[in-house]
Amino acid sequence: xxxxxxxxxxxxxxxxxxxxxxxxSEGTVCDDTRIRAALPTIEYLRDGGARIILMSHLGRPKxxxxxxEYSLAPxxxxxxxxxxxxxxxxxxxxxxxxxxxxxxxxxxEVLLLENLRFDPRxxxxxxxxxxxxxxxxxxxxxxxxxxxxxxxxxxxxxxHLLPAYAGFLLDLEVSTLAPLLGAPERPFVAILGGSKVSDxxxxxxxxxxxxxxxxxxxxxxxxxxxxxxxxxxKSLCEDEWQEKALKMLEKAQSRGVQLLLPVDIVAxxxxxxxxxxxxxxxxxxxxxxxxxxxxxxxxxLYARAIARAKTVLWNGPMGVFEMKPFEAGTKAVAxxxxxxxxxxxxxxxxxxxxxxxxxxxxxxxxxxxTGGGASMQLLEGTPLPGVEALSPKND
Length: 395
Ligand code: AMP
Known about the structure:
By secondary structure, the chain is of the alpha/beta class. It folds into 2 domains: 4-169, Phosphoglycerate kinase, N-terminal domain (Rossmann fold); 176-380, Rossmann fold, CATH 3.40.50.1260. It is built from 14 helices and 17 strands. The protein has a 6-stranded parallel beta sheet. Helix 11 links the parallel strand 15 (311-315) and strand 16 (344-348). It is elongated. The chain starts with 12 loop residues before the first strand and ends in a 7-residue tail after the last helix. Adenosine monophosphate (AMP) is lined by residues 194-196, 199, 218-219, 236, 291-292, 316-317, 319-320, 322, 350-351.
């Protein structure tokens, strides 16, 4: 990938794919992390005198035109405030009016296209839509690591139509995560949680080739426990993945990887914030209970394994951390990772990042990825379309 600082941007119209898919509440941005993550690229272009055209998706609109609920207007307001000058919001992602706004841009000015997913052609990686986007600019920059695993028009197709560069965030994400595929310092400990085994099976498989220990928590641990013959009651389980879970346990054994599963859990009879909870060892579960967090003995076991690590990768909460009675396991893991002073610690996107923020620990992690899906796909060893498209050999 060629990074943006290999280019003289003065006067050029630069089309930048950013990931402004931020959480909104009642029309305001509740977390501006993703907007701030794109600032190094935006400021570099602004200082260099580029005419900047930003584009992003936001949420999951129907793809049938403008939907106010998914407008990027709140993002334009926040970005205007941060940059200290007005960001112009285009009325649509492409079209004659947008072209006129692009043509009128002065050096250093910023235009934000409206939500790319208002146009159904974005998710189809449509060549004509990509051509309409490319027409707006002289150069393309991808700085949307969080969307780099999607072969969408603004990520993939458009990169073949203009000289294409990586923004600073995309470059930083790839250059920080990719070495974990090589020979990271050992012990290498990975912690995986979240709801579904089916979502994580590829990364489990890939990590078993590389890690010294793999700690599993979250809803997905119950498919493993059931496959081993434990009663899991009403806990989350994907029965059709039990066989694959057993294969992963065998693989861990044959590779000499320590695969840790919970030894106790925080259980409740029903799923609610105020449900009475019990701490049960895994052989005490009965069919009336559901497991909603790893228990204290497991937290201790996992914290001890983490304490020995020189490289840590964490993705996915250990329990339903959004509810106080089920947050302790995720908190214990977050604290154990944050406590490492002499290790390379990487947290991959999504819920683990919001858990870190809830516990005020995000600044004590070596690297917090802005892309959950993209970081996992990269670490599975599956090429990211957004990164591949920037590779000069693809042009
Ligand atoms: P994912 O979207 O797959 O990364 O999963 C994240 C979600 O998994 C979070 O919203 C958690 O509340 C949920 N989760 C974690 N542990 C459990 C569990 N034991 N039972 C049900 N949901 C869980």
